[in-house]
Design goal:
Length: 353
């Protein structure tokens, strides 16, 4: 897989199978997992071999195609019935990331609307999965460019803070929040990125820091509890995070700890940006209270590797995401522009026209 090392891609179609960069092994190993069955794709999404809302959407799209390839019937109705089961299996993997459901819905719409033989449906599904992959890469690059213009002006180069990983690993490439960071670095506007370690799975310490090191972007890893102190010291000019789902009013679901980061940003009068594709906005939900929050295995809290961190008898609560209220968000950076949370309703109106 050395040919893929020049740039970071989390999901690759290669030699009639999907290659997933195994994010559970970074930074210690740079390895790909080959996926050729829809069931294996579901496991990879659930176990976070592939993670990040846009990347999950791309992986799920390929998962639908892999499922279509496994169905042996030539009868259209039987084929679609079996494909619905594949779709439901993939939907059940991660409840919060809306891109998963968006990509599956787009794939299933193609399946139902493609006229002709079952083989022609399979071909259309493969083409759609590849289109979703390519579109996400273009979207992330556009988000980076839009975000660069939204960043605050400053006489010196900017120091930014991010939480979790919303980079190339979390997307088809380039990244959303980290796409903004990349664009700032490439245009000479970035001095340094501060990366929250992001407990309990350490996506910031493991993944965001790894991406920055690959490109020579200066990065400082801090614990999640250090953000307020760094802001008080004047070390942070703006915060940029990704999103797994954004409600119609701008309330945003992102990795646990984002809400507290938004609160301390507000307290220190520091701009707080959310960077995400339009596909992450779920206009069917009025506000964040309707976003389902995934709860994960408590072992993520009490154990790192083979090391147990807590005493026997303790209890655990491990929500993977929290909801940042719209009033704490300065702006939402999308591929189509930068909007305040209150302006999202205008995007919804355009979509329904």
């Amino acid at each position: 897989m050395n040919s893929f090392r020049n740039q970071v891609y989390s999901v690759i179609w290669h030699d009639n199978a999907v290659l997933l960069l195994d994010q559970t092994r970074i930074p210690n190993e740079y390895t790909f997992v080959e996926i050729s069955r829809s069931e294996d794709m579901a496991v990879a999404i659930k176990t976070m071999i592939v993670r990040g809302a846009p990347a999950i959407g791309v992986a799920a799209a390929y998962g639908i195609y892999l499922g279509a390839r496994e169905i042996s019937t030539d009868n259209r109705d039987e084929f679609l019935s079996h494909l619905e089961k594949v779709a439901q299996m993939l939907r059940s993997t991660r409840p919060t990331a809306v891109n998963l459901f968006w990509a599956i819905s787009r794939m299933m719409k193609v399946a139902y609307e493609t006229l002709g033989t079952v083989e022609e449906i399979r071909t259309a599904l493969f083409q759609t999965a590849q289109a979703i992959n390519a579109e996400d890469l273009q979207t992330c690059q556009a988000i980076g460019d839009r975000g660069l213009k939204a960043l605050p002006s400053h006489p010196e180069k900017l120091t930014l803070l991010t939480h979790c990983n919303a980079g190339a690993l979390a997307t088809a490439g380039y990244g959303t929040a980290l796409g903004v960071v990349r664009s700032a670095w490439q245009h000479g506007r970035l001095a340094r990125l501060f990366a929250d370690e992001t407990r309990p799975r350490l996506q910031g310490a493991r993944l965001t820091a790894w991406e920055c090191v690959q490109e020579g972007i200066p990065v400082t890893v801090i614990t999640d509890s250090m953000a307020a102190h760094c802001m008080k010291q004047g070390l942070i000019h703006a915060v940029v995070v990704g999103a797994d789902r954004i409600a119609a009013n701008g309330d945003t679901a992102n990795k646990i700890g984002t809400y507290s980061l938004a609160l301390v940003s507000k307290a220190h009068n520091i701009p707080f940006f959310v960077a995400a594709p339009l596909s992450t906005i779920d206009f069917s939900l009025a506000d964040g209270s309707q976003i389902p929050i995934e709860e994960r295995d408590p072992a993520e809290i009490y154990q790192i590797g083979d090391t147990i961190l807590t005493p026997a008898g303790a209890e655990f609560y491990n929500p993977a995401f929290d909801i940042t209220p719209a009033e704490l968000i300065t702006a939402i950076i999308t591929e189509k522009g930068v909007f305040t949370p209150g302006e999202l309703k205008h995007l919804q109106e355009k979509q329904t026209v």
